[in-house]
Give the backbone structure.
Amino acid sequence: MPFTIVRNDITKMTTDAIVNAANSSLLGGGGVDGAIHRAAGPKLLEECRTLGGCETGNAKATKAYELPCKYIIHTVGPVWKGGKQGERALLSSCYKRSLEEAEKLGCKSIAFPLISAGIYGYPKQEAIEVATEAISDFLEHNDMDVYLIVFGRSSVIISEQLFGEIKQYIDDNYADSQPDSRRRGFFSNKMHNRGANKAEKNSSPLLGAFAPMSPAPAAAPMPVLEEAAADMSLDELIGSESETFSQTLLRLIDESGMTDVQAYKKANIDRKLFSKIRSNKDYSPKKSTVLAFAIALELDVSETEELLGKAGFALSPSIKSDVIVRYFITKHKYDIFEINQALFSFDQGLIGA
């Protein structure tokens, strides 16, 4: 995946490069800096002594020595001073300069800690916003697997308001949180309304309800099907039923006006994976991949369900991650990085490759 958040010890990452949140001397310190120096061994300090330090917002590379990666890219983040001393620009520069340095070294993958969010006091919510923005800007024009390494959910914080809204949506729509009697009505009402047209769905009070788990949408009432069939030839009817996930996706991309590159980058999908999808009309994707493309194409709920159905999946009220993704779709929020931050905050798997 081009950009993902993972829980790990950065000294254990086998990416081509890892980033060290260093101090300006580059001679080691506490936190991540100290851990990397200890794991890399004394030769790292010897090389760092030859670099003459590093300015805040800049980055310099060294060998990785005893670490499982190839390079260590040392960057100096800003100390938080209330946000009015250019901290945001300096922090953004840390990510940009580190990525540029990795590209010069020919790296295909890189792992970052959350820079400046420890003893330097940068607020975590704002720190991750800067990281996400800088990394996503870089990935628009470059191919690289980028990992943001955190120790736990508390390291990735979405706003209290957004967290509260999503939690309420989960409470209202997550099947495991509903009494049995309410859940039965929830599904039967949804089934009753499956034949409604798109406009009716968008105005329905049941917009927050989910489709039952099935590989394809339930059949519409017979009069609706007969009316639709009357306007279609036999070849068109057969074609509409036989279109695969890959064919449907490529058609939707064409209809959206996006290029293939714009689509897979917006979906946070690797170029190689997209090539497999394009070259194989019968490609079987993971559900997270389908959802990522639904977000990239800014599909509504019914369109997302249709695309999922082509791959044999469905949005489920019994899967918390589906509930969260649906929340963003109903709110017309299609930033995949924001969605993945929310999923991580609720301890759910991320969407994408």
